[in-house]
Amino acid sequence: MAFAELAVNTPVLRPGSFSYSIPLGLEIKPGQAVWAPFGPKIVQGIVLEVSDQPAFGQTREICGVISDTPLLSFHQLNLAAWISQTYLCSIYEALSPMLPPSFERRSVAYISLEPSPLNKSEKPPATLSPSLQKIFDWLQTRDITPQTELENIFGKKTTQTAIPKLINQGLINRTYQISPVRTQTKFEKHFGLSEQALAFIKDQTLTKLSPRQTEVFECLRENPQGISKSRLNLLVKNNAAILKSLEKKELILTEEHQVFRQPIDYSHIETLPHLKLSPPQEKCLESINRSLNTPPEDDQNPRTFLLHGITGSGKTEIYLQALAEALRLGKKAIVLVPEISLTPQTIARFAGRFPGRVAVLHSRLSPGEQFDEWQRIKN
C-alpha cells in the first residue's frame, strides 16, 4: 500500500503534513489536489509526497482526486515548505496563493432530524430548553437545512450551542457536503458544415433549403473553420430552430470549444518595437542579461538588481528588454505593479511589446478571468 503526505485546507495551524493511505487503483502524484477526510468533514488537500511508509502510524484513506494532473510543481511544493518554516504558517496557507483562483471549496454543514423511533408527530423529550425546543420544532418542518440558515434565524452562538446538545440526545443529525464549484473552464458551442454537406456542395446535389436555412448554411459556408454560437447570433438572429433542423438533416456539426475569458483587448493595442538604449541603459541591461545567462551556481555576483532613476529616465525600457531576454531563454517573468489604477497603461506597454504573451492577475478581474489567466500562465 502507498501513502501520501497532504497539506489540508483546515484552520489547524499545524506546521507539518497529514498522512493518508492511497486506495488501491488510485494513482496520485505530488502536487495533485485530492479530497480527504478530516474529522467528520471532507476537505481539500494537496499531495506533498508519496511513499511506502506513512509519517504517522494510523491513517485514513484519501476519498478521491480533484485534479487529474498536478496543479503545482516540485519547485512550488519546496517553496511552500520553505515559506511554512520561515514564516511559521501551515503548508496549505503557503500553497494557497499558488492554487487556481476560486479553487477553495469548503465542507458545508447540513442539519436534519435523526431517523429514530421518535416520529415527527411525536413530542420530543420534555427536558429541552426553550431555545432547543424552538430549533427542534423548526427542523420538524424541513427535510434538511444548512447550518448557516439556522444561525441566521436563531443566532450563531445559540445555534452552535444547541446543535451538539440535540445531536447528543439523538434528535438531529449533522452531515457535510462539499460546496459547489465556483469557477470552471468555459465552453461555447461551435458550428460547422458536415462532411455530408461538403459532399453535397461539391456534387451540386444539396437539397433545397428554406430562405432562413439557406442564410445560416451560407454563413457557415463562408466560415470553413467553424463559427461560435455568439458570433452566429450576431449574424443571424433567432437561429436555434434553424440550427436544430440543419443538424437533423446532418448538414452541420456541433462541437464544444473552450473559450478563454481574455481581460486584454489587443484590438486597441499597437505592437511596439524595442527602443534604442542610452549608454547607461545599455550598461544596466548588459549586467542583467549576463546574470540571466549564467547558471546560479556559477554566478558569484548578486543576482538582484535595483534600478535607481527619476521618473522618465528609462527604467521600464530596461525591464522590457530584460524580459525579452528571459523569454528568449525559455523562461517566464513576473512584473509587479504598485497600483491597480496603473494597470491599463502598463498592460498597453507590455502587451504591445509581447503580443499574446501577457497574462494579468488582479482583484478587479472576474473570477472567470482570473481562472483562465491562471491556466494560461501554468500552460
Low-confidence stretches: none
Query: Which architecture of the largest domain does the CATH hierarchy give at level 2?
Result: 3-Layer(aba) Sandwich
| Domains, number | 4
Strand order, largest beta sheet: 5-2-1-4-3-6
Instruction: Please outline the major beta sheet.
Output: 6 strands, mixed
Oligomer: single chain
Helix-residue proportion:
25-40%
Quickly give the structural class.
alpha+beta
Identify the overall geometry.
extended
Q: Please work out how many helical segments DSSP would assign.
A: 13
Strand content: 15-25%
Keywords: ATP-binding, DNA-binding, Nucleotide-binding
Protein name: Primosomal protein N
Domain Helicase ATP-binding: 296-379
InterPro entries: Helicase/UvrB_N (IPR006935), Helicase_ATP-bd (IPR014001), P-loop_NTPase (IPR027417), PriA_3primeBD (IPR041222), PriA_3primeBD_sf (IPR042115)
Report on this structure.
- The protein has 379 residues and is an alpha+beta fold.
- The chain folds into four domains: 96 residues, 3-Layer(aba) Sandwich (GIY-YIG endonuclease), CATH 3.40.1440; 72 residues; 64 residues, no CATH class; 113 residues, 3-Layer(aba) Sandwich (Rossmann fold), CATH 3.40.50.300.
- It contains 13 helices and twelve strands.
- The radius of gyration is 30 Å and the shape is extended.
- It starts with a strand and ends with a helix.
- The mean pLDDT is 87.
- This is Primosomal protein N.
- GO terms for molecular function: 3'-5' DNA helicase activity; ATP binding; DNA binding; hydrolase activity.
- Pfam families: PriA_3primeBD, ResIII.
- InterPro entries: Helicase/UvrB_N, Helicase_ATP-bd, P-loop_NTPase, PriA_3primeBD, PriA_3primeBD_sf.
